[in-house]
Amino acid sequence: MPIKPLISLVFWLLSLGTVQADLLTYPYIQDLSTDKAVLCWVSHDADPVSVRWLGNEALSLVTPTSALNFNPAELEEFPDLSSQPRFLHTVTLDKIEGRDKIEYQVQFPNEPYNNAFRGLPSAQERVRIIAYGDSETEPESTGKPAKWATPEDPKRLYLVDQTTGYQANLEAIGKRAPSAVLIAGDLVESGGEQRDWDEFWRHKKTIAGAIPFLTAPGNHEYYAGPRQGKYETESSRAAIAKYRTYFPKPYYAKELGRVTVISLDSIDSLPHRSEADSNHYLQAAGDFAPGYFSESEQVKWLEDELARAQKKGQFIAVIFHHCPYSSGVHGLPPGSGDAQDPQSGQPLQALTPLFLKYGVDVLLNGHDEMMERSEVVGQEITPDGESRPTTLQVYDVGIGGDGLRGPEQENPLRKFLAYSDSPEVWENGVLRSGGRHYGHLEIDVTPTETGWTATLTPVYILPLPDGDGWKFERREYPDRLTLP
Q: Does the N-terminal or the C-terminal CB of the chain have fewer CB atoms within 10 Å?
């Protein structure tokens, strides 16, 4: 059952140019359901714009978005930044049910924008999703290679800068024609700095208008920036307001054929600065962060969604930022003392009993900026009340385009770690295979008569010398997994 070709890779072949000078965020699919899609973009232009699709036409709904203005520290440090107001344009493309391919055109004044996307897959179709985390975009990423330390060379830097690595990763993702791309938090470096958000969207001029991005917030989306209050309450509130302007739902579920994706906010919880809290710098849970304590609305909602997906026999993928089982620094216990971490992922282990009870297949996390897989075994309770063995696969996929870290501690549940299980192979000064690189996890779910089968493939993007520059090859880490 082949995956449908991604509209002949039209979004990579478009002539981008300058559609219009006032356009700040190119059109992206904010939401996609069976019968409609929500298309958004951000502009300095307050005039409604016409969108045409499948013989239909509608004008954009225009909303002022002061949340997306540059903050005072940005304007002071970078006086050439524009203080013009920004406007969010939203259009609902309806009447798309049953359509395999939806072509659309946005009638910008200077030059129309053309793109296309696929409708949601049916329960009979093979589904591909691709997940990564920790792109942490900022303009300063250009010309800034990540640390790539080894015990022999603790100051070693990566082969290409972060901007180049992230763009190569996105290009490889686009060529694989996924039904959706999942980002496990830390989309930008500083959630309160608009420059970083503008950089994030610059990378997605066309891909986000052709493939829906399903995101979860990371701690960096709550981080106002080093010059704008960091995690101070009101500064952090303004930072996460930017994220929620682009992605309004703090947590949600999305059904893609036989796949259910559940996105959570793992950034803060109660009691503050306790062993249950994943961010000791931030005090937001129960206020502008939903929290994941047992009485929280998010956790009550989560159990309902897990039960619904389990009853339907779905492949269940849960995405959130903090990896609860990790070899990295954020795998240390929460706290500020020795061998502790104030932004630990361990508190999220509180949700593991729920994940096991409802037979969740995979957790997709980031935070520690490694490619790592762990396994947690337990008992699933079926809708009929029967108990059966289950294994929860836990991935840190935080190799989107920022850090390329190594382990800081032992993880007894670890089954694969790129740092140690994919050694570098060099020939004549050229890295030919293996090692830590930017990449993602590719998941293919194929319906069967009795349910589904899933293949999970960790992927890295290998830079190879090409004249005065670089070319990039898609490679697979030696940890392909088939479920069930």
A: N
